[in-house]
Design goal:
9-stranded mixed β-sheet; binds NADPH dihydro-nicotinamide-adenine-dinucleotide phosphate; 6-stranded parallel β-sheet
Length: 367
């Protein structure tokens, strides 16, 4: 077999391509989809969208190929910076047309929280895979609609739970599952920062759907679940508000909450927009403990157990996340800690219960 034929066969081109002149064949290859690369459009070119875009430059499996934005000036800058063609740029009115664009596989929704559900469902209806930021939606009812829409459309729904791929987190989880801490009966999660600008969308109930719990407290909810490896069966919660002007009705400033698990384990957590230096997970079992601080920030994460420090190379979380999400979507890989819509929904069920417990003062049963 001549070398051109071998080359074409390795490139996976058809008999038709073999009958074309070499120049046309190479052009056909150019436009051919690389099944190993997830071609992603980012929706919402804000602070976190910028971070994800930068991180994707170093991803081996995901490539930024498209944009959805309401701000033309940002689109111009991003187009230049990342070499995005005009035909892959959309706004919030016309992005349904993405269904006619064979060069985009997935849309990463990185908008304010209340837009996650409507935009994710439109992306699914356009036949593209959905990657959605946390919190996946404003409540469990919305989350269920998203899961159903993606199922109907036959597309993946993944949530931007970057910690699920972080090396030290995964090692603590591995040790917990292997019983190295004995029976784990206590988890503490502290999640908070002092929020600035009172006019930002995070303090606007319509766009945020709540306050610190939706934004940062959800890390402690999610962390309790993956660190203990169980689903809670009850929740209690208490609210503290020191600044009712900044934190209006429905926008929580500080919530302490507790969760009980089938094994008898309990979690004691804090979610706040009123204190800095709160990014800590502590897991205690009958034979040992694990502590992580910082536990969910951009890193490097620090983690240690009763046996000593956990060492692992720091890799930009969003780079690993996009590599792994490409493997989930393109290769059917199953992550150790799930990142699918069902996982996002589990957190939302707990968020709903926390708000209910906080308002009623009651212990809310989940099972
Ligand atoms: P930003 O305000 O920085 O960016 C949000 C972007 O959404 C805006 O820049 C805008 O982009 C677009 N947008 C569309 N509609 C609106 C609207 N009505 N009001 C404001 N912006 C709008 O927010 P973040 O990037 O910090 O957060 C976005 C999402 O990412 C949130 O859900 C947040 O929880 C999540 N997040 C996740 C993190 C993680 O570690 N996983 C960390 C930080 C945030 P454009 O102008 O292009 O339309």
């Amino acid at each position: 077999m001549n070398s051109r034929r071998i080359f074409l066969r390795r490139a996976g081109l058809s008999g038709l391509a073999l009958s074309l002149p070499l120049s046309q064949t190479l052009a056909a290859m150019e436009s051919q989809k690389d099944d190993k690369i997830l071609r992603v459009a980012i929706m919402g070119l804000g602070s976190y969208g910028s971070r994800v875009a930068e991180a994707m430059v170093n991803s081996k499996r995901a490539k930024l190929v498209g944009l959805v934005s309401g701000t033309p000036s940002k689109v111009e800058t991003w187009k230049q910076k990342y070499g995005i063609p005009d035909k892959n740029c959309y706004n919030y009115e016309n992005f349904d047309q993405i269904k006619n664009n064979p060069d985009i596989d997935a849309v990463y929704v990185i908008t304010p929280n209340s837009l996650h559900k409507p935009y994710s469902i439109r992306v699914a209806k356009a036949g593209k895979h959905v990657i959605c930021e946390k919190p996946m939606a404003l409540n469990a009812a919305e989350g269920r609609e998203m899961v159903a829409a993606c199922k109907t459309a036959g597309v993946h729904l993944l949530v931007g739970y970057r910690m699920h791929f972080e090396a030290k987190t995964m090692e603590v989880v591995r040790q917990q599952r292997a019983g190295e801490f004995g029976k784990t009966l206590f988890f503490q999660g502290l999640s908070g920062f002092i929020i600035g600008d009172p006019t930002q969308w995070r303090l606007n109930y319509e766009l945020a759907g709540g306050g610190s719990m939706m934004d940062i407290g959800i890390y402690s909810i999610n962390g309790a679940r993956y660190m203990l490896g169980e689903e809670p069966i009850w929740v209690t919660a208490q609210e503290v508000k020191t600044d009712p002007v900044k934190f209006k009705e429905g926008v929580d400033e500080t919530i302490t909450f507790q969760m009980g698990f089938p094994s008898g384990a309990v979690a004691s957590c804090l979610s706040t927009y009123a204190l800095n230096n709160l990014d800590k997970f502590y897991l205690n079992g009958t034979k040992g403990f694990a502590e992580m601080q910082p536990s969910t920030g951009y890193g490097p994460i620090k983690a240690w157990t009763n046996k000593g420090p956990i060492e692992a190379e720091h890799v930009t979380h969003q780079t690993t996340q996009m590599d792994e999400m490409a493997a989930i979507i393109l290769d059917g890989k199953k992550p150790m800690i799930p990142v699918d819509g069902e996982e996002g929904l589990k957190d939302l069920v707990i968020v709903d219960a926390i708000y209910e417990a906080m308002k009623t003062g009651k212990k809310i049963k989940l099972a």
